[in-house]
Amino acid sequence: APLAGPLAEKASILAASGPSNVEFNIAYSSNRTEGLPTTLILATGGTIAGSSASNLDSTTYQAGVVGVGQLIQAVPELLHVSNIDGMQVSNIASESMPDSVVLKLTKLANKALCTPNATYDGVVITHGTDTLEETAFTLDVTLQCDKPVVVVGAMRPSTAISADGPNNLLQAVTTASHPASRNRGALIVLNDRVCQAYYCEKTQANAVDTFDSPEPGYSGALLSDKLFYYSSAAQPTFKQTFDLSNVTALPDVDILYGYQGTDFGLLNATIADGAKGTGAGSIPAAALHDIDAAAAKGIPLVRSTKINVGAAVPGDVNYDSMIAGGLLNPVKSRRLLQILLALNKTNDEIRNAFEGKLKSYLSYKPGSS
Ligand SMILES: NC(=O)C[C@H](N)C(=O)O
Q: Is 47 a known active-site residue?
């Protein structure tokens, strides 16, 4: 049925924000202070822009209500740190974030930061937290220069007692406009921590202390309003970057979740429905026949672990028709597979992009160079 009411309005915002339209449509521009860096805020919605009639409500509010100008003006301290422009890219809960808007975000960020006459020093993306790691990962592997993109959200809506959005936004702009943030790819900043987008995940559904990358750890932190990093700039070992400037759409890739009693009829259904690739974890033996058949048709299948921490390791003979996602969780594996398919990579190139570097570590022989 056609959408009605507020949802119809949101759907029309999304329709207007297709990837071919990557002009800066600046809704808010601060007075310029000479000598300060300049940050572009790309607002997409989420709880950071959420609102509720009750200041006690942190769970059943409406996400994606407050506009970018209001978000910025609620934190005048931002203007002591950076000159600010703000653009409203969408205003939705992140569980409704379409691939087209994520593709648009990466194009806007690259245009703002990486073109020869780029005037911005950093980009901040305000985003719902439920799928924030997917957008942040996509930005991380598609950014074409060493300037920072910082993705930020909030766990409490703007109307809540002790809303976390304003301070998170200030910390995000502080991070995006700081020279020490260069050459670190995309970063996620919430709750006084700076986390590398490649590894960072949402780990708690409700609490403000939720984004973490438990094994690699945080890159930096904010003490009051001051940023520091634990180490000099470094990129994740397994990260590769890709140029999406000529890509107009990301292909369909579905995720199938493995559990006791998994119905792998879904695998065939999703392929029949046009999926160009799928992801899964360790696989029930009963599904292997269908998996091998799908792989034989040339459909790349990536298996990645649903456990937050750890790796799907290449070289497992039980699953040799599948590609191992390594350290990437299912949603990040999906994004990487979409990007590789959008760039028309062959299945061997896709396998190599997922497995190559981890395999070279696993095949290391002491004494070899
Ligand atoms: N805290 C949040 O932002 C959750 C919200 N459902 C969203 O992702 O948009």
A: yes
Instruction: Give me the residues of the chain with pLDDT under 50, please.
Output: 1-2, 16
Q: Which value, to the nearest 10 degrees, does the dihedral of the CA atoms of residues 18, 136, 80, 31 take? A: -10
pLDDT number for residue 259? 81
User: Both 220 and 274 in a single domain?
Assistant: no
Pocket test for ligand 1, best of 91, 92, 130, 209 (most atoms within 8 A of CB): 130
State the SS3 of 118-187: CCCCEEEEECCCCCHHHHHHHHHCCCCCCCCEEEECCCCCCCCCCCCHHHHHHHHHHHHCCHHHCCCCEE
Q: ipTM above 0.95?
A: yes
Query: Is residue 248 situated within a structural domain?
Result: no
Q: In terms of domains, do 96 and 131 share one?
A: yes
For residue 64, being part of any structural domain is answered with yes
- Per-residue confidence (pLDDT) for residue 227, from 0 to 100: 98
Q: Which domain holds residue 265?
A: 254-362
Beta carbon of 300 within 6 Å of any ligand 1 atom: no
Same domain for 283 and 318, yes or no, is yes
270 catalytic residue (yes or no): no
Instruction: Please check whether residues 61 and 152 belong to one and the same domain.
Output: yes
d(CA 206, CA 280): 26
| Domain presence at residue 238 | no
pLDDT at 267: 78
Q: For ligand 1, is residue 204 a contact (CB within 6 Å)?
A: no
- Provide the CATH number for the domain around residue 18: 3.40.50.1170
Identify the pLDDT of residue 1: 41
pTM of the full structure: 0.92
Tens-place pLDDT, residues 279-302: 555 676 777 777 888 888 888 999
Catalytic residue among 44, 129, 159, 174: 129
Q: Ligand 1 centre from 61 Cα, in Å?
A: 10
